[in-house]
Specification:
heterodimer; A: 222 residues; mainly alpha; three-stranded mixed β-sheet; two-stranded antiparallel ribbon; 10 helices; 57% helix; 9% strand; disordered C terminus; B: 201 residues; Rna Polymerase Sigma Factor, Chain: A; Arc Repressor Mutant, subunit A; 2 domains; 8 helices; 2 strands; 2% strand
C-alpha cells in the first residue's frame, strides 16, 4: 500500500470505519512509514481536539424565541381552538358544507322534477288530483266557450294533431313545450277512439274537481 | 448522547405542541452547538438554530414517530446552513480586513485580529485552541465541515452521517478525509511541537 492510499484511509482508520482487511493493511503500512504515522497522529489529535471543544451554552431565550416565531405562524391559532371546541367546530364545518349544497340541490331539483316527471312541487294538491293537468306546461292555453254545461271536452294540440294521437302527444308536449289547447266544446265526440275517450273522462274529472291545475310559481283555480 | 428512541416513546401521549417543546428543550444545546461550530458566530448560530426549529415545527407532521429525532433535526440544520452558504456565495458580502471600523457613535477604530498561530505561550490554553480549531473549521467547505462536526463533535457513524446529509457512505468518507486534511494543515501551527512534522501531501 502506498503512502497516498494509506493517507486517504487514515481518517476512516481513526474512526474505525474500515473493513478488517483495509484496517490490517493500513496498520502494516503505519508500522513501517514515519511520515504516514505522523499524519495518523495529527489526524487523531484533530479528532480529539474537535471532540473536546468546550460546548457553548445555548442562549436561554432560544426556546422562547422559537415559541414566539411559531405562534406567529398563520396556521398556529387553529389547533388550539379546535382542540377546545372540536365538537362544535365539527358540527359547524359539516353544516357549512351541507346546508348550501342542500339549498342549491333543491333549487336545481324542483324544475327538473317538474320537467321530467311532470310532478308539480308547489301548489295545492294539483298533481295528486290530476296528473295530466300538472304535466301541462305554463304555455297551456285554455279556451272555454260559452256553454258551461257541456258533457264533453275536446283536448287537442294547437298544432292540429289528430284526435287519436292526442293522448300520446300530451305527455311529450310537456317536455317539448308545444302549445296545447283545450277546447271546451258543447258537442260530444261520439266517434272518439278509445284513448280519446279516456282523455275525455280524465278531463271531465278535472272539471268536476273544480278544474284545478298548477304550475311552478302559482296556481290557477277556476 | 440522548436516547432518542426512549424520548419518542415517552413523548407520544403528549399533544403536538407539548411534544415539540420537550424535543426542542432536549436538543437545543446540541443544535446550537452544531450551528455555532458551523457558523463560528454566536448570533448567526442562534438565528440558524431558531430557523431550524421553526422549520422542524412546520414539518413536524412529516416526522415519523419512533425514528431518530436528532438525525431528522440535524438534517434540517445541515440543509439550512448549506443553502445559506450557497445563497451568500451568489450574493457575497466582502469586507476588507485592512479597513478601519466605523463606530455607531461616530469615529473609527483599527480592526484587531488575533494571531492564533504565533502565540506559543497561550496556544495550549483550552480557549485558544478552541478558537484555533474554530478558525480552521471556518476555512474548509461547509459540506466537509458539517461531516467532520457530525463525526467528531456529535459522534455519529459514517452511516448515520450519510443519512443526515443525504449522501452515500463513500461521500461521507471522502468529505471527512478531505475536511480533516484541511484542518490538519490549519491546526498544525497551533501545535508547535508538531508543526514541522506534518506537511501537506
Amino acid at each position: 500500500m502506498t503512502c497516498n492510499m494509506t493517507q486517504r484511509l487514515i481518517s476512516a482508520y481513526v474512526d474505525r470505519e474500515l473493513s478488517e482487511d483495509e484496517r490490517a493493511r493500513v496498520r502494516q503500512h503505519l508500522a513501517l512509514c514515519a511520515e504516514c504515522m505522523a499524519v495518523y497522529e495529527m489526524t487523531l489529535e484533530v479528532k480529539t481536539a474537535l471532540g473536546s471543544m468546550a460546548p457553548s451554552p445555548c442562549p436561554e431565550c432560544l426556546w422562547e424565541c422559537v415559541r414566539d416565531q411559531i405562534a406567529m405562524l398563520p396556521f398556529q391559532a387553529e389547533p388550539e381552538r379546535s382542540s377546545r371546541l372540536s365538537p362544535l367546530r365539527a358540527v359547524w364545518s359539516f353544516a357549512r358544507l351541507v346546508v348550501p349544497a342542500a339549498i342549491a340541490g333543491t333549487i336545481v331539483a324542483i324544475p327538473l322534477v317538474h320537467m321530467i316527471f311532470g310532478v308539480s312541487v308547489f301548489g295545492p294538491a294539483g298533481p295528486r288530483q290530476q296528473p295530466l293537468a300538472s304535466s301541462t306546461p305554463p304555455r297551456l292555453v285554455i279556451t272555454t266557450p260559452a256553454s258551461e254545461e257541456s258533457s264533453s271536452t275536446r283536448y287537442q294540440p294547437a298544432g292540429g294533431a289528430a284526435p287519436g294521437r292526442t293522448a300520446s302527444m300530451l305527455s311529450s308536449s310537456s317536455l317539448l313545450g308545444l302549445d296545447t289547447a283545450i277546447n271546451h266544446s258543447e258537442k260530444s265526440d261520439r266517434n272518439a277512439s278509445s284513448p280519446h275517450e279516456q282523455l275525455n273522462l280524465l278531463l271531465r274529472r278535472m272539471q268536476d274537481s273544480s278544474f284545478t291545475y298548477t304550475w311552478i310559481g302559482g296556481s290557477t283555480h277556476e | 448522547m440522548v436516547n432518542q428512541q426512549a424520548l419518542a416513546t415517552t413523548a407520544q401521549p403528549l399533544s403536538k405542541d407539548a411534544e415539540f417543546e420537550s424535543l426542542v428543550l432536549r436538543y437545543q444545546n446540541s443544535v446550537y452547538n452544531i450551528a455555532l461550530r458551523m457558523s463560528g458566530n454566536p448570533d448567526e448560530a442562534q438565528d440558524l438554530a431558531q430557523e431550524a426549529f421553526v422549520r422542524a415545527y412546520r414539518s413536524f407532521d412529516s416526522y415519523r414517530r419512533g425514528t431518530s429525532f436528532d438525525k431528522w433535526l440535524y438534517r434540517i440544520v445541515t440543509n439550512l446552513y448549506i443553502d445559506e452558504v450557497r445563497r451568500r456565495k451568489r450574493n457575497p458580502y466582502v469586507e476588507s480586513l485592512d479597513e478601519r471600523i466605523t463606530m455607531s457613535g461616530g469615529g473609527e477604530v483599527d480592526r484587531e485580529i488575533a494571531d492564533l498561530s504565533h502565540s506559543p505561550e497561550t496556544v495550549y490554553d483550552r480557549e485558544h485552541l478552541d478558537m484555533c480549531i474554530q478558525s480552521a473549521l471556518a476555512q474548509i467547505p461547509p459540506e466537509f465541515r458539517m461531516a467532520v462536526i457530525l463525526c467528531d463533535i456529535e459522534g455519529f457513524s459514517y452511516e448515520e452521517i450519510a443519512q443526515i446529509m443525504g449522501t452515500s457512505i463513500g461521500t461521507v468518507r471522502s468529505r471527512i478525509h478531505r475536511g480533516r486534511r484541511g484542518l490538519r494543515e490549519r491546526i498544525a501551527p497551533c501545535f508547535p511541537a508538531r508543526s514541522g512534522e506534518v506537511r501537506p501531501t
